[in-house]
Amino acid sequence: MTLIPEPAPDATTSGQDATTSGRDGSAALDSYRRAAIIGGGVIGISWAGLFLARGIDVVINDPRPDIEGLVLAGLDEITPALAALGLPTENLAGRLSFEADLATAVAGVDIVQENGPERPELKQRIWQTIEQAAPAHALLATSTSSIPATAIAQAMRQPERLVVGHPFNPPHLVPLVEIVPGEKTSEDTVRQAKAFYTALGKKPQVLRKEIPGFVANRLQSALFRECVHLVAQGVVTEQELDDIVTASIGMRWAVGGPFRTFHLGGGPGGLPHFIEHLGRAMETSMWPALGTPAFDDSTVAVLIDQARETFGDGTVEELAAERDRAQIALMRALDATPDSGSVSRA
User: Fold this and answer.
1) β-sheet bridge partners, residue 142
2) Distance between CA atoms of 100 and 38, rounded to whole angstroms?
3) Which pLDDT score is estimated for 6?
4) Rounded CA gap, 232 and 50, in Å?
5) What average pLDDT does range 13-26 have in this prediction?
């Protein structure tokens, strides 16, 4: 598995002159000259930076009056990470524009990546406008983290055009994109989305079934629920829990994932042996003991007080930059790990 995108030559002021090939040498990005990013928050800025670094001109649509300053400041913050990935970062802002009118923003683009608030009725209205104004050839993707495409596309005349392209934050850095088709999403749309995100340097996974929250967020939510329970019960502090995760399952899952980990935990008998001798005991004794915490006032107070104590010395921007540097180092280490035949991580 390759996690760091292929280094690219310096981009010029023209998106057509910038690199648009994926690591496999494909020209899948050649037909993507201009993108509309709907929503200029954290996710939108991250997508915009990656698109620009890959040679795609970007127009951002967001109703906030101060959006231009927010986006440009955010772009400056993520530029070092883009450069560390080997992507061209010269004059990114020169190929970035802003358009307050949604229909005008999506006219003439090759891809729309929507990052609006997680409200189904709002997304439905947004996509009604996008569908009517965007070119027929444009790839239409929503970054929603929990709402199925089927629900978002209810008011669309051509729901087969819409697909979920859910990134893991921050999109310019973390490789995963979950591609989740709705009930009426066409196979052509899914293939187009997978080819686009792959050429962009991402690691897309097409889900076989539509489910709220998709996969990565459901896993994250399940683990975080137990984290909240353990801290609220006084078993560990937030810092101690973070240290436990990064020194154990975090390391394991980075190189193998849960199922490979438990397969190895079964010894020569693999996963069948693990399930028979350890998994069933886990089911009867461990699973019933897992916590079901609520975000009541006392629990929230504990979580916030500890977060202030643990992270209070650094700004969110400083902590994010530290995370990005460590994440890139980890990705490089994983890329340097040899893959071979049946034991490949890919």
Assistant:
1) 114, 164
2) 10
3) 66
4) 38
5) 40
Residue 269 DSSP class:
G
Rounded to whole angstroms, the Cα distance separating 179 from 202 reads: 11
> Looking up tokens 């996969």, which residue turns up?
215
Residues with Cβ within 8 Å of 128's Cβ and at least 6 positions away in sequence, in order, are 155, 156
What is the pLDDT, as a whole number, of residue 300?
97
Q: What is the pLDDT of residues 35-79, one digit of tens each?
A: 999 999 999 999 999 999 999 999 999 999 999 999 999 999 999
Contacts of residue 190, defined as CB under 8 A and 6 or more positions apart, other chains included, come to 163, 179, 181, 206
As to burial, measured by CB atoms within 10 angstroms (0-12 exposed, 13-18 middle, 19+ buried), residue 207 is middle
Cα–Cα distance between 77 and 92 in angstroms, integer? 13
Which pLDDT tens digit goes with each residue over 238-250?
Answer: 999 999 999 999 9
Does 191 have pLDDT greater than 60? yes
The crossing angle, in degrees rounded to 10, of helices 216-232 and 297-311 is 100
pTM of the prediction?
0.88
**125, exposed or middle or buried, with CB in 10 Å at 0-12, 13-18, 19+?**
middle
Ordered by where they begin, the domains of the chain are: 24-213 (3.40.50.720), 216-336 (1.10.1040.10)
Asked whether the beta carbons of 201 and 25 are under 8 A apart, the reply is no
At position 268, the amino acid (one-letter code) is P
- Classify 22 in phi/psi space as left (phi over 0), alpha (psi -120 to 50) or beta: beta
Residue bearing tokens 């929507």: 114
Greatest Cα-to-Cα distance within the chain, rounded to the nearest angstrom: 62
Q: Is the pLDDT of residue 28 over 60?
A: yes
> Residue 79's closest CA among 97, 70, 92?
92
